[in-house]
Structure formats: structure tokens, C-alpha cells
Amino acid sequence: MIELKTAREIEIIRNNGRILAQTLRLIQKNIHPGIRTSRLNQLAEDFIKQKGAYPAFKGYRGFPASICISINDEVVHGIPGERTIEEGEIVSVDAGVLKDGYYADAACTYAVGPIPEEAQRLIQVTQQALQSCLAYVSEGRHLSDVSHAIQSFVEEKGFSVVRDLVGHGIGKNMHEEPQIPNFGPPGQGVVLKKGMVLAIEPMVNAGSFEIDTRDDRWTVVTRDGSLSAHFEHTVAVTENGALVLTLDN
Predict the structure, then answer these.
(1) For residue 23, is pLDDT > 90?
(2) Is the pTM of this model over 0.85?
């Protein structure tokens, strides 16, 4: 069942989204060669708590950290630890905030110093796929229109979308209905309605869409070892289209 949110609930999620956007900006400022992923995790946790919120990922389904940090061929759910970030890598950071009984969820991929042109293009295409699909987030459209827009944009650029992982509804729970694939035909399934709040998250691989999970049971990697990028916003469906809730404004 898809729960429609009231204007008050959406405003609470939006306030949490601001904290999340500020958290990701803090991470971006501190990503540099030589920093340990555990240090970035601590910076994020401390900042979120200073804002009176809770890092939503910490302990969620047993996850051992406050944010996910996925590097190069890691798609999502990378666990921060003693790994040192190096120049030339791409780093995806996924984070969540819980405050006043509601969640917000967002992700960005960052370049660490100069990176290969192909890696830079992968980041740009993934971010653009998220931006472009928002035009389809409006009352009366099908959710699959959003999915199709992401797949079409990405594949036209020569990349692939991960198929075994999806976006999701969000609100009082981190993961709610509906599921939001990043692929599929348009004009099918759920019809978007005012009050839906969606975590839309293209996960894009430079090579094949196939993925595996490492022995830690969390870290998802590309099967062929190709690079992967990840962007995510929490978005509300309104009478005026998409309202992005994970921005600092």
C-alpha cells in the first residue's frame, strides 16, 4: 500500500532533506586523497547528530556504519573502514536522516582529483539521468515513465542501469512502497498521485548491469569490475510536478 503524505509530513521530510544535503556537502569538502572512509563516516554522523537528527543507516537492518561509501566498482552499500581514498577514484556516498519520525535519503558520486574522461562522463550521465527523469514525476503519469526515462537516457549514452536494485517510497519508514526500478517500458503500473514521496536513485555502470555482493554481505560491486556511479534524491509528487526534498534551500 502506498501512503500519501500530507503537506505537513512533506515539510518534515524536506527539513530532514536539508540536513542531508548539508551533510553531503560536508563530505564533498572533506573527500581528498589520504582520508580514511571511517573519518568521513564520523564527520557525517557527528554533523547529523549536531542537527538533532539521527543517521538513519546506522544499525538499519544491521548495517554497521552511518553512511555508505562505495568506491570505483562498488555500486552501493560500501562499509566505511580503514580504506584510504586515493586520487583518481570515484566515490559514491549514500546517506539517510531520521528526525521527527520521518526519513530522507540521498546520494552523490564525487571525483577525487583528476579522473579519467570515461569516469567523469559516467558521473555526469548518472546525475543528468536523475535530473531528466524528474520531468516525469507528476500527477497522472505512470511510475514506469520515470523508470523508462532513466533507462533511455543512460543507455543512449552507452552505459547500463543496475536492474537488481531499485528506488523506493519513503516516509515513516526508510523503505516503503512503491519500488522504483531504473528500467522498464513506459505507461505501466502505478499512477503517480499528489502526496507520494519517492527516493529515486539511478545506479549506473560503465559496463554490464550485472552485479554481485561481496562476502561482507553488504557491498555490491559490478560483476565485470567496471566503474559505477549513484545519485539519489527524495522527491514529492505535487500538483506542480516534482518537488525535490533533499536540497539545501
Answers:
(1) yes
(2) yes
